[in-house]
Structure formats: structure tokens, C-alpha cells
Amino acid sequence: VVATSTLDTLSFCCMLVFEMCVGMYFPIMGTMKGVIVPEDKRAAIYNLFRIPLNFIVLFSLLTDLKPEQSFALCCIMMLVATIMQFQLMKRRLNSGELQGIITKKQQNQQQKEEDADESEKPLIEKEEV
After folding, report:
1. Closest CA to 77 of 99, 93, 55
2. How far is CA 100 from the centre of its chain?
3. What is the pLDDT of residue 87?
4. Are 70 and 60 in contact (CB under 8 A)?
5. pLDDT of residue 103
6. Are 112 and 91 in contact (CB under 8 A)?
7. Measured between alpha carbons, how far is 38 from 32 in angstroms, rounded to an integer?
8. Which pTM value belongs to this model?
9. H-type helices in 1-96, by residue range?
10. How far apart are CA 57 and CA 61, in angstroms?
11. Which pLDDT score, from 0 to 100, does residue 11 have?
């Protein structure tokens, strides 16, 4: 509906929402890929991700799509990506993998706080002596 709208304000607002989603995508995916993809296989897996991306770019350059069609196609691809992301998140939550990551982060934070407390203790003891 938005892609076929003739209202400039509506199209502009939708473009801003789309750009915001794309802007949030890169930091989020960078974080997730860093957690999910093993370090030693990271380069090979990232290169495999580039293959479908190159096909999408070639498709958009070689076809004569109208801007409305191109926008609708981008929206469909983003919707499919969102659905797949939720499926991945649900699988990871069910497997307990994310629970372990959260627990590790909490343990690391507690360890940092304990280390900070221990580093302050000798200073206090020296002043009392």
C-alpha cells in the first residue's frame, strides 16, 4: 500500500522507517554473528553470506523495476528476514544457548565488581595502618 502511495509525506516517512531498520540491522547482526559464528570459520561463512546478496544486487540492477516494485521487494525481503530471525531466536532460547550467554555475562560482571572491590580494599587497609 505504501509503495504505491502518491503521498510524498507518507513515502518519506516510510523511507525513514526503512532506513532506521537497516541502520539497526548492522550492529545487531554484527553482535549476533560474533556470538553465533565460530571464530575459526568466520571468514568462510561470511563469504557464503555474500553469494545471495550478490544475486539480489544483480537481480535489481538487471531488471527494470519501478521504484514502487523495488520498494515492495525490499519490504518482502525484510519481512522474510525478520520472520527467520525470530525463528532463530526462538530456537536458541529453547536450546538454552542464549541463557548460557546471559549467565556468562552476569558472571563476568560479578567478577569485575569483585575485582574492583578487592582492588579498593588494600588502599583502605594501608591508610588505617
Report:
1. 55
2. 19
3. 92
4. yes
5. 64
6. no
7. 11
8. 0.49
9. 8-36, 42-62, 67-95
10. 6
11. 80
Largest Cα–Cα separation, the chain = 82
Report pLDDT for 122.
55
From 103, 88, 83, 115, select the one nearest 32 (Cα to Cα): 88
Q: Are 78 and 21 in contact (CB under 8 A)?
A: yes
CA distance linking residue 34 with residue 88, whole number of Å: 15
Q: Mutual orientation of helices 67-95 and 97-128 as an angle, nearest 10°?
A: 70
Q: Report DSSP letters for 45-64, one per residue.
A: HHHHHHHHHHHHHHHHHHS-
Distance of CA 25 to the CA centre of its chain: 5
Sign for the CA dihedral angle at 43, 95, 23, 9 comes to: positive
Which ranges of the chain have pLDDT less than 70?
1-5, 97-108, 116-129
Residue 104 to residue 120: CA distance in whole angstroms: 24
Instruction: Encode pLDDT of 98-123 as tens digits.
Output: 555 556 666 667 777 777 666 655 55
